[in-house]
Amino acid sequence: MTNSLSQQGLFSSRWLFILAATGAAVGLGNIWKFPYMAGENGGGAFVLVYLVCIFLVGIPIMTAEVLLGRAGRKNPVDTMYNLAAASEARPVWGWVGIMGVVAGLLIMSFYSVIAGWALHYFSEALQGAFIQQDAAAISAQFDQLLQSPMTLFAWHSLFTFMTALIVMLGVSAGLGSVAKYMMPFLLLVLLVLVSYALFAGHFAEAAKFLFRPDFSKLTASSVLAAMGHAFFTLSIGMGAIMAYGAYMPASACVGRTIFAVAILDTLVALLAGLAIFPLVFAYGLAPSSGPGLLFVSLPIAFGQMPAGAVFGALFFAFVIIAAWSSSVSMIEPAVAWLTERFGFRRWQATLVIALACWLLGIASVLSFNLWAEVKPVYLMGRNPFDFLDMLTSQVMLPLGGAAMGIFVGWKMAGRLRQTELASLSPMLQKALLFLLCWVSPILVATVMMAKLYESFGA
Ligand code: PHE
User: Fold this and answer.
1) pTM of the entire structure?
2) CB 305 within 8 A of CB 311
3) What is the pLDDT of residues 329-361, one digit of tens each?
4) Which ranges of 247-345 would DSSP assign to H, the alpha helix?
5) Mutation test of ligand 1: which of 232, 321, 324, 391 has the most ligand atoms closer than 8 Å to its C-beta?
């Protein structure tokens, strides 16, 4: 175990990279966050902007990240420093890696609180807590959970521990095994839920809500939310994909791989929407009810359907596994940095990082109860959970991602870039560079400025 590669273990195949990248991408962002954000931002128009961002910005930046990772073969911070040096660009590019590492830790801190909700709901489903409960009772159960900081804290702790365990084991061993079996089963469970919603819910109304854009509902805030979510859901802009790219064999072809990951990720989000919204409309829930949407809608279905207890437990088990394979990727860049750059052992680095996220997570735990109304000016009038969510998805990931794209497009030495781009056709190379050099930076800058103008201007 002398050099960094053998320390982390190179992915043995392109297949393993697909699994790990899909594992990172598909998570709470798809099943929990996408539906409630679509609900809060008026449905169709939000979904359309999100889809456009996935294709115009997300896929190119994901490609850029893989490319940087493979060219640098280190953790995101050192990769950016080294590639900047090799390209005779300024060392300040290293900060893109550092911002990514920090973003990953901030995301992890609140992500594990929400994954904790799923752990709690898994155990509730097993005990048949939803059987024959009406919508009001299900909502009350959720409120009761939020009102109990100790329960939230306990589940948050368990999830943080689970994540640390896998990261300690290392990338190939830890991750490959988690990711391998999850995806087909998750898709299957989602399909069953969508079919149930088709019969038992208001499906047509839901489809109209999600897919018929009403552009009058679009504001700068909702466009920024949609764009930010495209970054969040693909796990781009913070180095997770770069770290995984560094473990990818040099021979593997990137183009199709990334496309496959993005399509799968989008599919899971849309299926989750189609499972949830028919019930939302059938039971008179508010589409805009916020982060609880998943937890107050699907349990109603589990309470009514045959074998709902088993099925509910199965569903939440998959949500947990999906969240788990994502959370691992959030702290991997930080752990890789500490081990490669500062000589930590893997277990030590994991311990330090997990501890920091665990402690910071307490702020999010309290955001749903004691601190719900604590919205200080220095957190821009938000409680800690809302602030961390906004800061990471809507500021750090888009800025980080756009910067990585700009680096690949404008700064990276031609010979380094060309080696990595070689597997793409000349047409695709041109399209990619155009999107990275122009489209994503301009889009990110415009949307952010529009939002600033909306908030503070006029
Ligand atoms: N993409 C993950 C999800 O949708 C979240 C994530 C964000 C993971 C950033 C890693 C990095 O749940």
Assistant:
1) 0.95
2) yes
3) 999 999 999 999 999 999 999 999 999 999 999
4) 254-282, 293-304, 308-342
5) 232
